[in-house]
Amino acid sequence: MDDVTIRPAAARATKTAPAENFTGTVLQDAYAAPTATSRTSATLVTFAPGARTNWHTHKTRQVLVATLGTGMVEVRGKPPRILRAGDVAEVPPGVVHWHGAVAGHLFAHISFLEIEGPDNNNWMEPVDEAHYRKVAVAPEA
Questions:
Q1: Where is each Cupin type-2 domain found (predicted)?
Q2: Contact, 24 vs 51, CB < 8 A?
Q3: Counting beta carbons within 10 angstroms of the beta carbon of residue 79, is it exposed (0 to 12), middle (13 to 18) or buried (19 or more)?
């Protein structure tokens, strides 16, 4: 390729994230998919208040760029971390974590991953509702 490729926003369809890997309403808009020359995936993920991923890992580093609202990321066994627009979280390969909106807040981030085959993500159990209610409270700004 010797030119810039532009994919108009109208050409991309937003899809609902699969219920087996997410709790609540989560929308995904694929910005970039891996191609023969690149393994990069970039997806805008929008979480309704209270929505979140299941616990999971990735084979490669995940970079989350918060774009809207208030969310969080939690590594299993560690305190959760708040994410606000402009914050960037880097999750190392193999680290068990979840991310999503805090209670009562909309949240969106762009997830960047390098994909290594169809099983790049290892999806686990949902975040327990009692655990979520305990940790998913946004501190005052």
A1: 44-101
A2: yes
A3: exposed
What range defines the domain where residue 57 resides? Answer: 15-120
Single-letter amino acid, residue 102: V
Interacting residues of 42 by C-beta distance below 8 A, sequence separation 6+: 30, 31, 32, 110, 111, 112
CA-CA distances (angstroms) from residue 26 to 15, 86, 100? 9, 20, 9
Q: Are 120 and 58 in contact (CB under 8 A)?
A: yes
User: How far is the C-alpha of 85 from the C-alpha of 69, rounded, in Å?
Assistant: 6
User: In this structure, is residue 82 part of a structural domain?
Assistant: yes
Strand partners, 22: 53
pTM above 0.85, yes or no: yes
Residue 59 scores a pLDDT above 70:
yes
